[in-house]
Design goal:
Layout: E1 2-9, E2 12-23, E3 26-36, H1 38-52
Antiparallel strand pairs: 1-2, 2-3
Length: 57
C-alpha cells in the first residue's frame, strides 16, 4: 500500500511516496520515492493540470 510520508530535514518538510508490504508477516517499507517540497509538488500539479485543460477555440 502506498502513502504520503513527510520527513522534516533541517526544519523543512519534504514529501515521499512510501510503499509498505508485509515481509515475513511484518509490515516493512519496500520502496520510497522522493516527491519534493509542497511547493515543488504544487508546481508539478499546476503544470500537469494546465497541459490537460483543452484550449478554447
Amino acid at each position: 500500500m502506498a502513502s504520503l510520508y513527510k520527513k522534516t530535514i533541517n526544519g523543512k518538510p519534504y514529501w515521499y511516496l512510501r510503499e509498505m508490504a508485509r515481509v515475513d508477516g511484518k509490515p516493512k517499507m519496500v520502496s520510497e520515492r522522493y516527491l519534493g517540497s509542497a511547493a515543488d509538488i504544487e508546481a508539478l500539479h499546476d503544470a500537469r493540470e494546465a497541459e490537460s485543460v483543452p484550449s478554447k477555440t
